[in-house]
TrEMBL record:
Top-level division of the source organism's lineage: Eukaryota
Gene3D superfamilies linked: q2cbj1_9rhob like domain
Protein name: Phytanoyl-CoA dioxygenase
UniProt xrefs under PANTHER family: PHYTANOYL-COA DIOXYGENASE DOMAIN CONTAINING 1, PHYTANOYL-COA HYDROXYLASE
UniProt-listed Pfam families: PhyH
Cofactor: Fe cation
Annotated InterPro entries: Phytyl_CoA_dOase-like (IPR008775)
Organism expressing this protein natively: Ostreococcus mediterraneus
């Protein structure tokens, strides 16, 4: 049977519009971007990587607790290695979980894939994949579980600021919804950049943010007072966002 191409696995997007919105707000949402087959492949890959990380115990509560101990993150590749920025390497194939990776997922995040093409358009031709992970939020069972699946306000490159030896380079994240997401099951919430002059970098734009300590926790009843954007999107939607844009997400309050 004919193997689908990355173009056939996604809908057409208008790159210039995405670039304008990304520069203005620090993020852009492409709803219903990936085809169902790709989403299914992502879900299967996610389940396989999770089993490799936390085992296959029949004790669901114990497995959820192990995942929470990992920060609700199932890592696919190893971004801390010295070759992480080598664009000629297939990091997914080289990692210990390489055998679990589905070709549909590898293709869609590759340079010519639906996600890769947008990343290159927003970052430039020298963009390359260096971090590949799944975030899985177990259903709430206790206060500990609530806090484990809650991500407080942050920007993704904070680790560069905290690590005195890190060499910063602008990057972005491509967040793919594998389920229909809303506030109940812990979707993302963004704080767009404050208004600014055109041409300023993302890190310069982010300097105008209020202090993170001044923003209410996603667990707080005051979170809705923040003039941000709460994402309610269907599975297959993709959010592209800068390493400098502030965002958070609440816990998974659903039963699944």
């Amino acid at each position: 049977s004919k193997r689908a191409t990355a173009h056939e696995m996604s809908k057409t997007v208008h790159i210039e519009r995405l670039a304008r919105e990304y520069a203005e707000r620090g993020y852009v949402v492409v709803e219903d971007y990936l085809a169902r087959d790709v989403v299914d492949a992502c879900r299967t890959e996610c389940e396989d990587v999770m089993r490799a990380r936390i085992g296959t115990s029949d004790d669901g509560r114990a497995r959820w607790a192990e995942l929470e101990a990992l920060g609700c993150v199932a890592q696919v590749n190893a971004p801390s290695t010295s070759d992480a920025r080598d664009s000629d390497l297939n990091h997914r194939a080289r990692h210990s979980h390489g055998a679990l990776c589905r070709w549909q997922v590898s293709e869609v995040i590759g340079r010519d894939g639906a996600i890769g093409k947008v990343a290159i358009a927003l970052l430039g031709e020298d963009a390359r994949l260096f971090n590949d992970q799944y975030v899985v939020k177990p259903p709430a069972r206790s206060d500990v579980a609530l806090r484990a699946s809650c991500f407080e306000w942050h920007h993704d490159s904070q680790w560069c600021d905290d690590d005195g030896k890190a060499v910063y380079a602008p990057y972005m994240s491509a967040w793919v919804a594998l389920d229909d997401v809303c506030e109940e099951n812990g979707t993302l919430r963004f704080l767009p950049y404050p208004p600014s002059e055109d041409g300023r970098s993302h890190r310069e734009r982010a300097k105008a943010y209020p202090a993170r300590s001044a923003l209410p926790s996603p667990l707080s009843d005051d979170i809705d007072a923040v003039q941000g954007k709460l994402l309610t999107v269907r599975a297959g939607s993709v959010v592209f966002f800068s390493d400098a844009v502030l965002h958070c997400s609440g816990p998974n309050m659903s039963e699944t």
